[in-house]
Amino acid sequence: MALPRTHHCQACSDTSAHEPVLHEDLVVGAPLSMEDLTDAQRLDRFALKYAHDGCRVTEVRRVPHDNLSGYAWSVRFTADS
Question: Does residue 8 fall inside a structural domain?
């Protein structure tokens, strides 16, 4: 299964604060080949999918999940509002 399409977050655009906003998404069904990538390569790969309104991916990590492969990817990113 492919990575999610470009992420769109209402909170990024609707907030009026001038500090970065931390978001976290859980991505289920990312390709198993993600495990073969380095941390930097994972950041780059997800950064392309989450790039909008100044968002920047800060962390991608594997987390347990009740799906067929038994895990998902937690993607943390900040949005400058």
Answer: no
Token pair in block for residue 1: 């299964």
Domain count along the chain = 1
The sign of the CA dihedral 54, 58, 60, 61 is negative
Which residues does 78 contact at the CB level (< 8 Å), separation at least 6?
Answer: 20, 21, 22, 23, 55, 56, 58
- Domain of residue 42: give its range: 20-80
pTM of the model: 0.65
Digit-coded pLDDT (tens) for 16-50:
555 567 788 888 877 778 888 999 999 988 888 87
**Tokens read off for 51:** 């790039």
| CA angle at 79 for the pair 11 and 31, rounded to the nearest 5° | 95
